[in-house]
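From the methods appendix. Each design record in this collection lists the tokenized structure first, followed by the designed amino acid sequence. Records were kept in a plain field format so they could be parsed without special tools. The example shown here is representative of the layout used throughout.

RECORD:
FOLD TOKENS (374 positions):
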């Protein structure tokens, strides 16, 4: 069943949210008292901001979300919501007293209750069956008129919006979402993601959501916090993470990455593509991050050139562009050689202009580069 679109502007109700800020400082957690699952996490979500917690499976993102929600206690550090410490030394405020709205991975809807009763579940007893807050929340998620339906008669996208309506009905200060799209078919995910994006903007509510999907984190997050093995590697706007990743691992985690050898001196680095400007001054042998879209590719008419030459190994037509996998004909043999040696990914926003086995000429057309010392 297709999910009905969320209206792009509120019908009548205004936002029920009281936007609040979140500050996490020095949060650490170990379940067995030995292995840290989270170490010294510092994170701020400003009022009205959407923050994505991004990381591979097992990195600790759900644990951090549960600590913010009060479903788990931290061993060290503090969680401050608005101007109130809700978790810290000697302090552990119960989840229901934190003014938090939470949407779980599986949405946790009650199948035997109507949509309206599900949405009213978090409200004070007297308001659970009938309340303007239920109607308001359903209107905000574009489900006016669905109150009497059973959750099982709704599409995946609609069920997710019921879960969201339930989370926002009590007018929380902050919304927490755990892998909000993992329960949806791949075909629905992009559509629902856009709907939720519009909804979050309309709500203006401080939101923290967990995902292992870089696309989701980048599309929805004003800020993305990347966790790796319990450590926060970098927090920043998506473009900053993509263009200036803090580590080599993160560079590859947030997008396709080529790494080529180079030798850095002050603000520039010598590479096969010539001397490139550096984002940060570095010295000595390095690996240089080159994004596939920062390489221009064209047919090489002769080998008598100082340009980087490469043989086309694969051409992948993507509809909105073309990806090429090429192998340099004379890859740098220095220890920093990329892996597998000499192979590069190129992405152009155009139809295929080259075929497999053809000889290509590559040129770097991006801005200042990031280099990781060896
Ligand atoms: P995923 O994307 O797979 O859900 P995640 O990044 O959300 O992963 P967490 O669920 O926070 O990771 O788990 C981090 C680590 O803590 C994992 O090694 C996990 O097995 C462990 N862990 C989580 N909860 C508990 C628990 N209640 N008791 C013991 N270990 C736990």
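DESIGN:
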């Amino acid at each position: 069943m297709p999910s009905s679109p969320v209206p792009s502007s509120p019908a009548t109700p205004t936002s029920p949210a009281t936007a609040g800020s979140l500050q996490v400082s020095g949060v650490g957690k170990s379940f067995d008292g030995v292995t840290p699952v989270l170490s010294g996490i510092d994170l701020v979500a400003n009022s009205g901001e959407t923050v994505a917690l991004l990381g591979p499976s097992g990195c600790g993102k759900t644990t951090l979300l549960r600590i913010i929600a009060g479903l788990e206690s931290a061993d060290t550090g503090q969680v401050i919501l608005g101007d109130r410490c809700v978790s810290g030394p000697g302090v552990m405020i119960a989840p229901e007293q934190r003014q938090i709205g939470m949407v779980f991975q599986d949405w946790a809807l009650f199948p035997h209750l109507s949509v309206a009763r599900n949405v009213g579940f978090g409200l004070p007893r007297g308001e659970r069956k009938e309340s303007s807050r239920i109607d308001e929340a359903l209107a905000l998620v574009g489900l006016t008129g669905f109150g009497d339906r059973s959750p099982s008669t709704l599409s995946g996208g609609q069920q997710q919006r019921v879960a969201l309506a339930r989370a926002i009905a009590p007018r929380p200060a902050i919304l927490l979402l755990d892998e909000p799209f993992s329960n949806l078919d791949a075909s629905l995910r992009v559509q629902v993601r856009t709907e939720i994006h519009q909804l979050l903007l309309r709500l203006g509510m401080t939101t923290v959501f967990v995902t292992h999907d870089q696309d989701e984190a980048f599309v929805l997050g004003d800020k993305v916090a990347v966790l790796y093995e319990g450590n926060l590697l970098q927090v920043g706007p998506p473009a900053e993470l993509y263009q200036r990743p803090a580590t080599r691992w993160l560079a590859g985690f947030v997008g396709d990455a080529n790494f080529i050898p180079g030798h850095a001196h002050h603000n520039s680095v010598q590479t096969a593509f010539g001397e490139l400007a550096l984002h940060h001054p570095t010295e000595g042998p390095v690996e240089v991050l080159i994004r596939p879209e920062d390489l221009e590719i064209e047919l090489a008419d002769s080998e008598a050139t100082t340009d980087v030459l490469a043989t086309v190994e694969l051409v992948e037509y993507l509809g909105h562009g073309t990806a090429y996998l090429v192998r340099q004909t004379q890859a740098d043999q220095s220890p920093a050689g990329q892996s597998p040696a000499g192979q590069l990914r190129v992405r152009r926003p155009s139809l295929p202009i080259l075929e497999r086995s053809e000889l290509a000429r590559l040129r770097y057309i991006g801005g200042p580069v990031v280099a990781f010392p060896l």
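APPENDIX NOTE: Helices lie at 61-69, 115-120, 132-140, 156-168, 186-203, 214-220, 238-243, 248-253.
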